[in-house]
Design brief:
mainly beta; OB fold (Dihydrolipoamide Acetyltransferase, E2P); 2 domains; five-stranded mixed barrel
Length: 123
């Protein structure tokens, strides 16, 4: 019997699946999986668009830009993580420069995608 590979179909009962899930350590936010990440659900992040914004989608081509990622500290303040990632914009409208955005990881490719844009740029 060969070893299962990612993406291989599995025939498993709900009872057995629940037993397997008990063995996987929980990560931040209650997600599960390797490194505490649940591969089936997107992860949510805070980000700030660059000064030039993120271009709009044109046809089927998504706009994208390198954005700074932030995290919320214990005082509920946004702190720059020093990490920046390419963020994709599915909207037909560009994201304004310096706008605060909420982004999520795409399930299949794990890329970052804009899901919410703040109504006002940085204050």
């Amino acid at each position: 019997m060969s070893q299962a590979q990612p993406g291989d179909p599995l025939n498993i009962s709900a009872r057995d699946w629940n037993e397997v899930r008990k063995l996987v350590p929980k990560g931040r936010g209650g997600s599960t999986g390797a490194g505490g990440r649940n591969p089936w659900f997107p992860e949510i992040y805070y980000a700030k668009a660059p000064s030039g914004g993120i271009p709009a989608r044109v046809g089927n081509e998504l706009g994208s830009a390198l954005c700074d990622l932030y995290e919320r500290d214990d005082d509920d303040e946004l702190i720059d993580t020093g990490r920046n990632e390419t963020v994709y914009n599915i909207s037909g409208t560009a994201v304004e420069g310096n706008a605060w955005i909420v982004i999520a990881t795409e399930v299949r490719r794990r890329d970052f995608v804009v899901i919410v844009e703040s109504c006002e740029a940085e204050s």
